[in-house]
Amino acid sequence: VTNGGKTTLAKKLQKHLPNCSVISQDDFFKPQSEIETDTNGFLQYDVLEALNMEKMMSAISRWMESPRHSPVSTDSGSTEEIPILIIEGFLLFNYKPLDALWNRSYFLTIPYEECKRRRSTRVYEPPDVPGYFDGHVWPMYLKHRQEIENITWEIIYLDGTKSEEDLFSQVYEELKQELAKH
């Protein structure tokens, strides 16, 4: 969901996991001149076609070919080189070529009212036009969320109304446990 805390959580995890890299889907939007407009005149940013997913996949492939390695201490006291890649974005689970990559999957949710409030405090380029949230952003979120309901792997749903610290602690502890297994 837009403004759910994805980037904030990813950056905080990256700070605390010394062998961690982040790739953000937001870095792969096509230029505005290539974004379709719907019948209401709304730019269609909340669809896969607005993103250069091939370029994003190339960035992921480059990382996988040569991940950044740094020592990480696990709870067992051993030091291993386990590179971590966090891929964060709003349409990741709707893009089938990514399906085989996930070790852990998290989905942040926030209710409509909170999402609309947070969105109204952000500055976008181009700026949101009146009615854009209700006419495009939220309907696209609902559509894409419904599409992922039939995913066969486990997605852990996180309550984005929790504090940044609570969300970070939950995911960080789960990742530390996962790293300890390797």
In short:
With 182 residues, the protein is α/β, with parallel strands linked by helices. The chain contains five helices and six strands.
What is the total number of structural domains? 1
Q: Count the DSSP helices.
A: 5
- SSE order: HEHEEEEHHEH
How many strand segments?
A: 6
Main sheet summary:
2 strands, parallel
CATH hierarchy: architecture = 3-Layer(aba) Sandwich
Assign the CATH topology. Answer: Rossmann fold
Pfam family, one: AAA_18
InterPro entries: P-loop_NTPase
Keywords: ATP-binding, Kinase, Magnesium, Metal-binding, Nucleotide-binding, Pyridine nucleotide biosynthesis, Transferase
Catalytic activity: beta-nicotinamide D-riboside + ATP = beta-nicotinamide D-ribonucleotide + ADP + H(+); beta-D-ribosylnicotinate + ATP = nicotinate beta-D-ribonucleotide + ADP + H(+)
Q: What order do the helices and strands come in, and which of them pair?
A:
Elements: H1 6-16, E1 20-24, H2 53-65, E2 71-73, E3 79-81, E4 84-88, E5 106-109, H3 112-120, H4 132-147, E6 156-159, H5 164-181
Parallel strand pairs: 1-4, 5-6
Antiparallel strand pairs: 2-3
Helix pairs in contact: 1-5
Structure notes:
- The protein is of the alpha/beta class.
- The protein is built from five helices and six strands.
- The protein has helices at 6-16, 53-65, 112-120, 132-147, 164-181; strands at 20-24, 71-73, 79-81, 84-88, 106-109, 156-159.
- It has a two-stranded parallel sheet with strand order 1-4. A two-stranded antiparallel ribbon has the order 2-3.
- The two termini are 31 Å apart.
- The model is unreliable at 70-79 (pLDDT under 50).
